[in-house]
Fold these 2 entries.
Entry 1:
Amino acid sequence: SLALRRLVLHLPRETHRRARLRAYPRLISRMVDIASPLRLPCGVVLPNRLAKAAMTEALADDLGRATPELASLYAQWSDGGSGLLVTGNVQVDRRYVERPGNVCIDGAQDDAARARLAAWARAAKGTGAAAVIAQISHAGRQSNGMVNMAPVGPGDVAMTEMPSGFFGAPHAMTAAEVEEVVARFAHAAKVCAECGFDGVQLHAAHGYLLSSFLNPRANNRASLFGEGDPYHAGELTRRARPLMDAVRAVRAACGPAFCISVKLNSADFQEGGLTADEAREVALALQREGVDLLELTGGNYESGIYFDETSANPASLAEKRQSAGKRESTRLREAYFLEYAVGIRAALDAAAPPTLPLLVTGGWRTARAMRAALASGDCDVIGLGRPLCGDPRGAAKLLDGTLSA
């Protein structure tokens, strides 16, 4: 099949036969459609393959607590038919947020805060079988300047080519500060588990803190702290250590039945940033750590994500992505990151045993393309964002066939 040929072409010659033997049963048994259920490695079952992807809501109250407005919004999405709902940014440190209005789980949560989180989770689950996971994050050097003009990051590299006054110059985190952030991720995840969420998604994409450690352009720790620093950019394993430590800490805090997802850039799409080859290595490491679901995306504020979200200067964004090696034809077609998922899928399938499902978000516009990607094995879950803002019941309509594009 085309999918099998694609898989084999991505592998060294000596692994071709082994990969073919392992992949063949998976391919011939893959009668997968958008309505097919999926059991994640942790045991959480998604009733179908459509996910409401994370989108920032900015609906928290002034104390960073979940609100009835958030619960109402997610009740609508739950009724809309998606098998998985991923929340927008839930910050692990209220000092460093993506924007005002982020929910924050920072320190001990009193009964009122926990009740609000629990109401949010109940609303998202609704009366159906949808799973809900909270995206937990630390904005790092991309912390919103309206809240904090003294952010932190892996190094002291300031944001470039961004609007003046939107982002402050970051302070390079000490090793102790990195360890504290890891503990914050574990704490936030445990609170989510106690409040009824099925899991969490660690946001390691789009240039936020965990993502920026992976990015050599932002991570200049070797020049600041020396070659002995455990997180410096000289080695991918060191750059990935904060993410891996956070995954392990969350698992230790929440147990094997709690879903751990990671949102990872398939590449940073900027010269000198995280490459597609490096992203594959990180994905393999996450599979070895027992992550339950990997969402693939790409880019950061400097390479265009910020302008994409604000619809400013799209021509410049296209030029940046093209110059960084992302073909313009790929950007404009459906499923922006699917071709990168194919390479990561091949690498994961070549490992023994392949266990990590892939969620691909961005650009999906037709049921035909979604079904083809699932049937081929290129991905396991389809992430939908803006389409479900325009029509919160879009997933249900895709499932019953009343909507195809």
Entry 2:
Amino acid sequence: HDVSEAHDNVTGEFEIENRSITGHAKPSHLVHPGSEDLFVHFFDERLTGVQARHMLSFLQDGGWIDDKTDELQMDLVTYNSELDLFAQMSIFFDWQTSGSIKWDYALNTLHLSPYVGSFGKFRLGLEIIVLCMYCINVSMELYDVITTVASGNALDYFLDPFNILDWTHFTWIGLTIGYWSRYYQLTQRMQVKSAYNILQEPSSTMRPFLTNPGEELEFLIFLDDIKELSATLKFYTVNAGISSVLFVFRQLKGLDFQERMGLVTRTIGAAASELWHFFVLFGLVFVGYSCVGTILFGHQNEMMSTIERSSVTLIILLLNFDTTKFYAGFMHASEVYAVHLYVWSFVLILFFILLNIFLAILVDAYAEVKNATNDAAGLATELYNVVKH
């Protein structure tokens, strides 16, 4: 509104026909893409505690935050100069129809200079070694594919579980390298200012949220870049973790050359058929209990509100029978006899019967493999013989 309106109108109200349409809108090139329909307010680093509380009261008194609010998101970016570490945090508040406010948060940390310093150079060296080993490993496996196809045994190669494991691992390593390359490219193109003075007058009591459009746009772009970096780094760490697990499985395959060291893979191979049928049976029973749990307790207990949450809760119940986590909620959500029938039948069938059958299958297969390798030399003996000769 024009300042003159406030002086001329003693009631403090603005007539519709007196509202200024031009003169207060941002230039279109300074509007952040994606934020056109959002009510964005800023608390920049120059504010004191008193000023920040005044601005929060301004939002509440002005009706920006009230019982009709649907959703509120707070974004915060900090920087630790000693560790050269950025932290990006988002806090979400969701007003429920029941009157409560659910909240959640997402926190990510990231380096913009991963190869700076002695540790960074050491990391770069290790990454180059890993990349070279990866290329050599893929080349060797491609050679195996070519020779196998040339010999007419392509189907046997591609149906071998260990070969499937190899190529799955190669794929995940490739994704990991791709995400890290993307992350490094993003860090190199980022432009970071020492300060973003978004508010025009932080000490203003009348228009505390008035912003400098240029500074506002620069900060929102910076925030978008930080969020994209955080998402890329998260995908990188997830793929790196999966790659590491697959690498462990491949090591078990690699140790199969030695009879004693290959006990694990040979035991699983000997029990594969029985394990397949067991997991089908276990899955049917487990999904059935998840559905029943959702029906019995889902209307009151959040942990059982969906089949997915029920499944997670039952897995925790199976591994850690902690009654403080579920018993009171179950008792209030259904009849006492239904709770006892559900819980104790679940424990009896899945824990005492099915899990013990699972162990029996593995023990039986292990005993069979162990008997077949009793006369085999151990790894230490074979190493000694190699060194001796």
